[in-house]
Specification:
The chain is mainly α. The protein has a domain of about 50 residues. It is built from 2 helices and no strands. The longest helix is centred in the middle third of the chain and has 23 residues. The protein is elongated and about 50 Å long.
């Protein structure tokens, strides 16, 4: 029987919890989605095309994951 190594090797996480970079990207993407929804709902005459909203979500999520330091 082999012991579990608590260090990260071969890009394997030591637990099922997401690493902070992944969590930051996910939260940032969700926040952008909610902001876009509220802007389109409560600002009359302001419409964001779906493709632009999607691109902004991806860019912000990437930036959050890139900026967040690993553990």
């Amino acid at each position: 029987m082999s012991e579990v190594n608590p260090t990260v090797e071969n890009n394997e996480a030591p637990s099922a919890a997401p690493v902070p970079k992944v969590a930051a990207a996910g939260v940032a993407g969700a926040i952008v989605l909610v902001v876009v929804f509220f802007v389109q709902t409560f600002v009359p005459g302001f419409e964001i095309p779906e493709a632009v909203a999607s691109a902004v979500t991806i860019i912000v999520a990437f930036a959050a994951g890139y900026i967040k330091r690993p553990r």
